[in-house]
Amino acid sequence: MKVKTLPLFILIVTSVVLVPWSCAWAEIESLPIPPRTPLLGLLPDSAAWTVRFKGADGRSDDAAKPGDPLSPKARALRAIEIKKSGNLRVEESIWSDGTSTEKWYSGNFMLITMPGQSDVYIFRKDTNGDAALKGQFPNFAQTDFPEVGWVSLETFRRVAVFQGRPCYLFDREIELWDGPTKQSKKQQVWIDGESQLPLAFDNGGVLQTYLFDKAASTALSLPPKFQEELARYREKLAGTNKHKLKR
What we know:
Elements: H1 8-29, E1 46-54, E2 77-85, E3 88-95, E4 100-106, E5 109-113, E6 121-124, E7 156-162, E8 165-178, E9 181-192, E10 198-202, E11 207-213, H2 224-246
Antiparallel strand pairs: 1-2, 1-11, 2-3, 3-4, 4-5, 5-6, 7-8, 8-9, 9-10, 10-11
């Protein structure tokens, strides 16, 4: 009786594919269930990371960031480069047309420059302004990743593998605006089983993946243009408060 054998190259390819997966699943078995708390890890005092966006059709330049009132509607969001140091945090949003939006958090203030504009827009945390700006001042002392701050033991589903990394999978149903109507969509988060930092976040049609810069240690400082505008804003604010006290 003649026994048929698989070609050598198929055996090699199969082993290359299966070995990493078997290792990942072996690591999964060692993950504590339920996940240890806090569920989201905190980055060092000085850190840098990039969030990349990919649309539902697989093209990164078609990705959009729903729910952000400060994002230009005609542009698609490709990536956000984030750095933090002390009480400073900067987020540079890279758009599909090559422009960028720069957003600084300094204490109770948020400072923004928009693509093609030199003006610095300043918002204060304790100002009762437009309702659309609510949520623009996350509590970064609690989490570096407010977009996935909703993860909880109640939204934990199972252990999984994302791009070869053993992780915890969380999901929830949420209503999002899609044009003039609201639609119910599922959001999913993959949290690394070891570091407990986010690996990816599907916000209901757009996949965000996280890349961390382990070498980041440079202290941040507010650029001169932002410092000048913030000083003028504070001076104006002090004058307004002084006027109120006299009344």
